[in-house]
Design a protein that fits this description.
Low-confidence stretches: 1-25
Number of domains: 1
CATH superfamily: P-loop containing nucleotide triphosphate hydrolases
Distance between the termini: 22 Å
Structural class: alpha/beta
Shape: globular
CATH class: Alpha Beta
Number of strands: 8
CATH topology: Rossmann fold
Largest sheet: 8 strands, mixed
Helix content: 25-40%
Mean pLDDT: 88
Bound molecules: adenosine-5'-diphosphate, magnesium ion
């Protein structure tokens, strides 16, 4: 089905005038993916920024939500760190603790069609402050559900921990995207992650499933990565993305320019890999590109 949606600034689409009972076209619900691995440095943030941008450059409407107190997605998109004496910009912290809505905290990015809910170091306290809050596991899910503006994809960049912030992301998400480095210890912690997935699915979110496993910083020239990849493929089967992300200097440089690699150096191997990943994800999910790129 064609899933063209109105631009972020146009009013919500009205039901089709000729078929009053037909559901409005467009995605009923955005495809919400939590980018998660409790290990740090595996490429979660890099994937959130660059997969999000690659999807947006294909014309899809994308919302990135920075769930990490380190706020690297926010910084990597050119939002500078704030000084202590500055009025803090609204962030996911304000959305989770309320009464700020998603619409109030949302920011455009340098990539048309890609919006951001910034993270902030205030999120460090959120895990503790949320403990006594009502519906503490559902705060993010509720905020997304209350939001009117339609998106094709919502990507949640998670912190390197299985804490209450990650739990909020898992409860809000439909799929898990797990970046892994093809190294000897790649599977370490994965059984814990999978059992967390199962427990969250049972207790809070029956829709949650593993969407895919992505090999990042990949170097296929070494015997070790080939061997590890073969093991991972056996373990995960068709949950492994066919696309792998190579280690590429342009990917590492792009955040210091506040840009995703797709606009920093569109012809680099890194940009091409994230574009390929975006197309693979579209094929897997059956979500189609809008026919003409939507104007933001
Ligand atoms: N494909 C890549 N090529 C080169 N460097 C990468 C690549 N992916 C990630 N990096 C670098 O690895 C480091 C960790 O990546 P990051 O996305 O921040 O991981 P995480 O969010 O899981 O902690 C960062 O310095 C990032 O620039
Ligand atoms: Mg990160």
């Amino acid at each position: 089905m064609h899933t063209e949606i109105p631009s972020p600034h146009s009013p919500a689409r009205k039901p089709h005038p000729t078929s009053p009972n037909a559901p409005a076209p467009g995605p009923a619900r955005p495809k919400t993916l939590a980018i998660v691995n409790q290990k740090g440095g595996v490429g979660k943030t890099t994937t959130a920024i660059n997969l999000g941008a690659a999807l947006a450059l294909e014309g899809l409407h994308v919302l990135l939500i920075d769930c990490d107190p380190q706020a690297n997605t926010t910084g990597g998109l050119g939002f500078r760190r704030q000084k202590d004496d500055e009025t803090p910009r609204l962030s996911l912290y304000d959305v989770l603790l309320g009464p700020t809505t998603l619409a109030e905290a949302i920011r455009p990015t340098s990539v048309p069609n890609m919006m951001l809910i910034p993270g902030s170091n205030h999120l460090i306290g959120a895990s503790i402050e949320l403990v006594s809050a009502p519906r503490r596991e559902y705060r993010l899910r509720d905020a997304i559900a209350a939001h009117q503006q339609p998106f094709h994809f919502i990507l949640l960049d998670c912190p390197p921990a299985l804490d209450l912030l990650t739990l909020n992301a898992l409860v809000a998400a439909e799929g898990l995207l797990v970046p892994l480095q093809a190294e000897y210890f790649a599977l370490e912690g994965i059984s814990e992650l999978i059992s967390t997935l199962d427990r969250v699915a049972q207790a809070f979110n029956p829709d949650l499933a593993l969407e895919g496993v992505l090999l990042t910083m990949y170097d296929d020239r070494t015997n070790l990565s080939q061997q590890v990849t073969a093991n991972l493929a056996e373990f995960f089967g068709d949950k492994m993305f066919k696309t792998t992300i190579p280690r590429n200097i342009r990917v590492a440089e792009a955040p210091s320019h506040g840009l995703p690699v797709g606009t920093y150096d569109p012809r680099s191997r890194g940009a091409e890999a994230y574009r390929e990943l975006a197309l693979e994800l579209l094929e897997r999910t059956g979500i189609q590109k809008p026919k003409s790129p939507a104007t933001p």
